[in-house]
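Thought: the user asked what L,D-transpeptidase looks like in 3D. I have the sequence; next I should run the structure tool and report back without guessing.
Action: structure_tool
Action Input:
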Amino acid sequence: MFNSFRLNSRLAAAVGALTIGAFAFSGSAAAAPLQLFPFIMTPPVQAAPPPVQAAPSDDEGTVAELPARLKRQIVSYASREAPGTIIIDTPNTYLYYVLGGGRAIRYGIGVGRDGFTWSGVQTISKKAEWPDWTPPPEMIARQPYLPRHMAGGPGNPLGARAMYLGGTIYRIHGTNAPHTIGTHVSSGCLRLTNEDVTDLYSRVNVGTKVIVLPMDRRADNSIGKRG
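Observation:
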């Protein structure tokens, strides 16, 4: 009986110790939960990488480079015309602004395409900065998709400046397509880069004489018949 009492006492003590340990374990677990599987590593959280900025396109912000011969420059040019006269060398796609003393400012220009060149003498009848564009009826008939009117601005085909020639439909004007300088591309108008037309515009006045040389001897010398 004494042995049974000692066994029961030891069993009770063991159960008590286990209960106290369980309470202690549960208290510490509540304060700081244990990781059940410490051998499984949680990957560290990384910040999202900064957005990659797209590289600019090759032609973004670039300006068409004119060939050396078409760049604005002062050249030797013998002429009997008075200083301030404009002479259009149609075959060679040059515009000369006569300075006198055997010199002139030479600009590269774009001229009329085949069948649309003309020649003769006119005067500047009007000047306009960032002009509106209203295609003439003759041009609309050939190209019905053209707008009937376009407000002036960087996207306007007449560019930064325009000088109107007499009562004709022709103009000396700028262009937003500088790669066409030196080519035969227009319907008879004479185009310069926006930088060059702005320079020329500052030099001429209403009434300035403009001489347009023929493409060749067979050229039609009439004025204002083509659009």
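Thought: the tool returned a structure. Summarizing for the user.
Final Answer: Structure for L,D-transpeptidase predicted. Helices lie at 2-31, 137-142, 194-203. The two ends are 133 Å apart (CA to CA).
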